[in-house]
Amino acid sequence: MATCELRSFDEHLRKEMSPRTSPSSPDMEDDVAFAAQMCKVKAIVKKARPAPPKRRTERPLPSVQPTADSVVSLPLYVTEQDRRRFLQQARKAADKYGVKVVRPHAGNLVAPFLVQGKREAARAFIERMEEDCVRGQTRSSDETASPDIAPEHYGQAIGKGGARLKYITEKYGVRVSVPKDRESPIAVSGQSESVRGAIREMEELVRQDLLKRRVALPVKVLPEDIGVVIGKGGCHAAQIQEEFGVRLRTQSHEHPQSPLIVEGPLDAAERAVASIQLRVAERRRLNEAYAEERRRREELRGTIPVRVEPGRVGMAIGKGAFRVRHVAQRHRVRIQLPERNKPDGQILVTGLKDDARAAVAELELMAKLKLRPEHVLVPLRIQSEEHVLVLGPEGCRAAWLGREFGVRVVRPSADGPLMLEGGVEAVARAEAHVEGVIAQRRLTTARRF
């Protein structure tokens, strides 16, 4: 069979090489012989090679079910914030369950702790640690605090049938214990954030209930201040009742010693009491200021007599006492005339000392000068350097005032003030005109500079 294969290969080789090379080439003969020899060797080697052995299929090993007594290494993941609490309790718990806890590398906060020991013991240890440390249910993680609620308001904190306590415990997951003696404070236990939230909401709910409850609050005012609160015809009391929605009473069984009671919701009643006390304090302040002003004015007040000759008292008084009334109204003083049939009686002027002196000076001057019975004498309130503006060159402006207003400009002395003589109305109009001109001149001078 090998000979047949070799012969066929030689023939095929000759057929392929015949068109390209000449059959008489000696090199070609040598190549063909070498190729034939290699084919024989290949066939012999292929025949002598043994067949590869068949691969045997491996059977699976029988599974071994772990028992409770088998030693295992189970992972236990602990967060970074819980590691300190875990390490504090792991040693005692490991001794109790008979396991060993292998810590990860100190810098690796992600790798788990390994719990080595019997399977059941390791699982029990892991469950205990997760319950105590990881979930934060240990006693060390709990916080107990008390809300700021008075014992008489425990009923509002508990609610009808304990509904409010049930709501607080379910919402925040805390434990609330109310003492039976109603003297000890309410205790709220649980996680810190939950306890703070529960206490805050409990206090707010109690406060809202108290604000809606109707109370009778006494107002700390003196009996003499009741009129300030009530007002004329009760106007102030009606305003307070309408504004705050409360009721004012002057008698109450709850507070018999208080002169004024405010009834209504706690919030509105407290605001009404504050408003009343503010009103009373403001009125007291005004009264004190008025009293101080009166005292100061009394210190500055005085009574000065008018020095007039007995025969010329009537000149100072005027017909029907019109000059005295004019001076008293002008200087805001009180003038006391002498009694009749007393030739030595004096005219007394009472008021602020400066005003009284000015009034006395006018009365004395009117008594000395010869005035018409219907005329009065009024000094101008201007400075000495402004006299020329009133008099004018050679008295031309003074003459114009006489023609325009029917008055006469009088200068009793060289250093004395200018005065207007005439009827009461004429003098008032002329005085207003002169003061207006002087004020306009002062304004023009100020603008110029």
Automatic annotation (TrEMBL):
Residue span(s) of domain K Homology: 141-207, 209-281, 298-368, 370-439
Keyword terms, alphabetized: Repeat, RNA-binding
Magnesium as UniProt keyword: no
Keyword Repeat on entry: yes
Biased composition annotated in UniProt, kind: Basic and acidic residues: 7-18
A biological process from GO: regulation of gene expression
GO terms of molecular function: RNA binding
Renumbered residue ranges of the record's region Disordered: 1-31, 47-66, 135-155
Biased composition (Basic residues): 47-57
Record protein name field: Vigilin
Lineage, uppermost ranks: Eukaryota, Metazoa, Ecdysozoa, Arthropoda, Crustacea
